Amino acid sequence: MTALLTAEALRVALPDRARKRPFRPAPEIHILHGIDFAVRAGEAVGIVGESGSGKTTLGRALVRLLAPTGGRITFDGQDITRASEATLRPLRGRMTMIFQNPLSSLNPRRSIAASVAAPLVARGERKPAAKAIAALERAGLSATLANRYPHQLSGGQRQRVGIARAIVTDPEFILADEIVSGLDVATQAQILDLLRGLRREMGLALAFITHDLSVVRVLCERVAVMHQGRIVEAGDTAAVFAAPKHPYTRRLLSAIPLPEIDAGWLDAEADETA
Asked: Contact, 144 vs 136, CB < 8 A?
């Protein structure tokens, strides 16, 4: 199957402003070192690694929130490596992102409905309010919450708002960056079960950034293991977890024991908390 989103020899370097000297450009910190990565249509790929491994930088580069310093990114066959914002704008609704902390990514002065409708308003769609309400309901929230503000919702509800905002444009690809790391176990299960349902319903491709290996094993068909800005191992999730080849992958798996679970555990947890 042809890849929907690909990165080839992707490199990202950011200025080290702490070492900047007067009248001289800031030296660069190299974050990503020649990454090759791909997500096929309808596929979920986990991106795992310890803090500082480059997971979030990779994710933001894939959706062009960060400009790469080398390599190539393509989306649906279109080279977007150095595309201008005007060129990227029509693609923004097709490739979206769910951020780690919805409280900081949602405008505190905007109502929930207005935040969800914002991507539609930006591209001049008609009846954005009705579509925003439909997206909220699709994400498991009542329409009665539409006029509330982020601080009036729970953490799980805010994350559902972030999901609603990501799906309101009917995207083909979503990048989810540590979206359950700040939630309790029961709420994590509900959010992950929601994502699984949306993937089936919408045919979504998903890149899921996380440090939780148990979640990756249940949610993702493939996994990429990152270490020091490189993908050190990638492949079928079950195969990588059963017989890791790279020493770092083996250390990562041994440091976080994986419980014996099956794909139904998310539904079971959600039923218990319904």
From this structure: no
Structure-token pair, residue 143: 């329409």
Q: Is the pTM of this model over 0.85?
A: yes
Q: Which domains does the chain have, with CATH numbers?
A: 3-84+173-178+186-273 (3.40.50.300), 95-170 (no CATH)
Sign of the Cα torsion 39, 216, 174, 221 reads positive
CA 47 to CA 198: how far, in whole Å? 20
Task: Give the C-alpha separation, 41 to 28, whole Å.
Answer: 35
pLDDT in tens, the chain (274 residues): 689 999 999 999 988 776 777 767 777 889 999 999 999 999 999 999 998 899 999 999 999 999 999 999 999 999 999 999 999 998 999 999 999 888 888 999 999 999 999 999 988 888 899 999 999 999 999 999 999 999 999 999 999 999 999 999 999 999 999 998 888 889 999 999 999 999 999 999 999 999 888 889 889 999 999 999 999 999 999 999 999 999 999 998 887 655 544 444 444 444 443 3
Q: Are strands 222-227 and 44-48 parallel, antiparallel or unpaired?
A: parallel
- Report which residue type is found at 237: T
In the sheet that 28-40 helps form, which strands lie side by side, from edge to edge? 28-40, 3-15, 70-75, 78-79
Asked if 59 contacts 177 with a C-beta cutoff of 8 angstroms, the reply is: yes
